[in-house]
Write a structure and sequence with these properties.
The structure is a single chain. The protein is an alpha+beta fold. The chain has helices at 6-15, 17-31, 35-38, 40-53, 95-103, 145-152, 156-160, 162-193, 201-234, 242-272, 279-312; strands at residues 57-63, 74-75, 78-79, 107-108, 112-113, 120-127, 138-144. Helices cover 62% and strands 9% of the residues.
Length: 316
């Protein structure tokens, strides 16, 4: 549930490219006015209005005909950093200026690395002649690409609750880790009692199975906690992609499958040592393990097929 990786952002950008270009063009066209060229309060007011509805918008500034920044960076109605941050910088080599200078209409760039935030961004630029001086000016709007993709996907509101989700999952992982510690402690406690059972061969043969059971449960619970930590806290999980959910369920079922298989083998070994009443439960547990394996295989196969069909359908 961490932030999207650059690869995921670029992939989603290609999926939502048309909608993103139309949205940015409409935003920039709607807010562009000659007052933006010379009035910082007008730029701040326009930016506040835009950010209220489109929180992924980052910066607004104006360039002259040579690509030099005439105004400070404006974000959410205030200058970023000092009052003259960005003012006077040469932007003529930036992709948005080169594109709008040649096209002379509203242009939207492809993703590039922002020099202000060092994050992937997209810029929209449009020419806006200065009626007072008669010179050409260019209004530029920078957006956070990740935030824009989340906005288009309808995922922005959910992202606000990410810190809460991560906290809850982290607490659950800590609880599972504590249970794992208790089971390991119990396993070693059982292991140490083996030294006091030198004369009882039957108990000596069966006692190690208790140790293995505790360790197996500890392994299964630890693997479950590790899966939750990786999937829900450390890694980005795209809930709109079926493969992400399928990966989580596959790892969870695989941990249960390993634990059930080991327990079935232990019961069979105990039956071979003379505990005959454990044979039938061992057989049923082995059948359960086989059923889990077959069900997991079908789930993965059908899930992959369904995702492939959903991916291909918009292109047809």
């Amino acid at each position: 549930m961490s932030s999207m990786s650059y690869l995921a952002v670029v992939e989603r950008y290609h999926q939502y490219n048309t909608a993103l270009v139309e949205l940015l063009s409409s935003i920039l066209t709607g807010m562009s006015d000659t007052q933006l060229l010379g009035d910082i309060h007008a730029r701040s007011k326009a930016m506040d209005c835009v950010v209220k509805h489109y929180p992924f918008v980052e910066l607004l500034y104006v360039l002259d005909a040579a690509g030099r920044q005439l105004t400070p960076n404006i974000a959410a109605g205030h200058a970023v950093g000092s009052s003259n941050q960005g003012e006077g910088r040469d932007r003529s080599n930036r992709p948005y200026f080169q594109a709008v200078y040649n096209a002379q209409n509203v242009v939207v760039t492809t993703p590039y690395l922002s020099s202000a935030s060092n994050m992937l961004c997209v810029s929209a630029a449009m020419p806006l002649p200065d009626t007072d001086s008669g010179e050409q000016r260019y209004v530029v709007l920078d957006i956070d690409l990740t935030g824009a993709i989340e906005f288009l996907m309808g995922d922005h509101a959910r992202r606000r609750f990410q810190p809460l989700f991560k906290t809850v999952y982290s607490v659950i992982v800590l609880g599972l880790a504590a249970v794992t510690g208790v089971l390991i402690y119990a396993a070693f406690g059982e292991l140490f009692t083996l030294w006091a059972m030198q004369g009882d061969d039957t108990a000596l043969h069966l006692k190690p199975f208790g140790v293995i059971i505790f360790l197996t449960l500890a392994l299964a619970i630890f693997d479950l906690g590790k899966t939750i930590l990786e999937e829900e806290v450390l890694m980005h999980k795209d809930i709109f992609r079926h493969s992400s959910t399928r990966r989580t369920i596959t790892r969870f079922i695989a941990a249960i499958l390993i634990a059930v298989s080991i327990e079935a083998l232990l019961l069979m070994f105990k039956s071979a040592l003379g505990v005959s009443h454990d044979m039938l439960p061992a057989v049923w547990m082995m059948f359960a393990a086989v059923g889990l394996l077959v069900g997991l295989g079908l789930y993965v196969y059908l899930g992959a097929r369904a995702e492939a069909l959903l991916t291909q359908s918009p292109r047809q």
